[in-house]
Design goal:
The complex is a heterodimer of chains A (about 400) and B (about 70). Chain A is α/β, with parallel strands linked by helices and about 400 residues long. Chain A folds into three domains: about 190 residues, FAD/NAD(P)-binding domain, CATH 3.50.50.60; about 110 residues, D-Amino Acid Oxidase, subunit A, domain 2 (D-Amino Acid Oxidase, Chain A, domain 2); about 45 residues, no CATH class. Chain A is built from eleven helices and 18 strands. The longest helix of chain A has 24 residues. Chain B has about 70 residues and is an alpha+beta fold. Chain B has one domain: Alpha-Beta Plaits (2-Layer Sandwich). Chain B has three helices and four strands. The chains are: A alpha/beta (about 400), B alpha+beta (about 70). Bound molecules: flavin-adenine dinucleotide.
Amino acid sequence: MFIEPEYDVIVVGAGPSGTSTAITAARLGLNVLVLEKQQQVGMFKRCAEGFAWGLIESLELKLPRKCWTQEIDGSYIYAPNMKEFLIDMGKTSGYVLERRVFDKWLAEEAVKAGARLIADVNVYDVIKDKGFIKGVKANFLGEDYEVKSKVVVAADGVESLVGRKAGFPLINNPVLMDSGFQYEMAGIELKDPHKLEFYLGTKVAPRGYLWVFPKGENKANVGIGIIGNSPETAKKYLDDFITKHDRFSRGSVLEVNAGAIPVGGLMKNMVMNGLILVGDAAHQVYPIHGGGIGEAITAGNMAGKVIWHCIEKGDWSEERLGDYNKLWWDKRGNALAKSEKVRETIEKMSDEQLNMLAASITKDDLMKIVDGNVAILTKTLLKFGAKNLQKKIFG
Amino acid sequence: MPFFKVGDLVKLIVDKNKCLSCGGCVSVCPKQALELKKYPEWDKDKCISCEVCVKFCPVGALKLKRD
Ligand SMILES: Cc1cc2nc3c(=O)[nH]c(=O)nc-3n(C[C@H](O)[C@H](O)[C@H](O)COP(=O)(O)OP(=O)(O)OC[C@H]3O[C@@H](n4cnc5c(N)ncnc54)[C@H](O)[C@@H]3O)c2cc1C
């Protein structure tokens, strides 16, 4: 009824990567179909909802008030010894979204741009023909459909069925994935309802961190991301933390969320003949903090443009679609790869080293490190190393 | 051809009371032995019993039963 037999572009997944691709491609005049597995766009929240305003700019859209719950003007970071480190931005620098509303708003923008979107459609395979991906096989309310397209966009998240069915190499290394778990809590006490809280340490969150992202005066996403091969579950670590802190232990649970965060495994190649990967499906996540919404939007916008260009030129082979690889690596990939190096250095640090780092790092240096400056991190660590040695020798 | 398949000796049990259908296990499986339907579905012919999924699951909903 709703699904026609052929489109220029089929986007699988209506998360931010899929809808951003659809917005851009549809605005350029392409005939776009977006298919979403969930019964409701935005229902599948695998996210702490932290976001920065500017990240939407590539789409030339303004974030409507309804999409965010809380303005953020800084962060509290806690070292393993619980020493507090405040980063005060002095003004609003970010937001905690309501992903359900945000994802649905982006979906509506895609529709406004001329795309067609249908929820509750499960894509279960791709159509392959003569070395090209030529469409998808999907089920909509019990009926099977084969829909053809020039280009298929795998925007179907971290477990990307489309990518796997098309034969993309898998990341089979749990060390490159964080295991994430979260409660959306109400009735809790926050340090400051406009500041994020981050807790570090091998005992609190091995390799990753534990977060508190406020969604109101007494409400927040309280969650954790840990290395994917940890013998204890992410839930266990989070529960231990909550039990120990009265501010949270008496709170209520409004939602339970979980998910994998691809904090590594950036892909040199994200295209095939007639196929392009965006967002979590292509592991486009900032390796230090795991933020992927902004990356998804930026990449979706690039993918939409490249697809349009290829279709204009009548060639959507791997080679032509490969412009997307170049564009993305140039604008984002190299920065993300640097940030991955920083993460690899930090994850080797002991709690003692983390404590020392927190004790004397400046806000400016910290910001540079988060931006992927390995040199500053190394310099700071060497400084500690030298101090430590002096202490050992001279007492 | 191996003499026997690993999947004949083990069984992946999904605790549906715990599972949040987040797809984490599917995304770390090196053999595509899992697919996310309502809950993860296990393909015994592909499983190599590496237990990557079991360790990864954020809530500990997976167990590999060996008999
Ligand atoms: C616990 C956790 C906390 C996070 N916190 C943050 C944060 O604070 N800030 C931030 O920026 N990022 C955060 N991230 C990362 C962020 O959520 C993702 O990077 C982002 O959602 C990626 O967008 P996407 O569109 O690529 O994928 P998704 O948002 O996962 O969307 C994929 C969509 O595809 C659909 N789909 C999947 N398979 C099929 C199929 N076969 N057929 C049809 N549809 C399908 C899914 O239902 C889903 O709607 C977090 C992730 C986790 C797990």
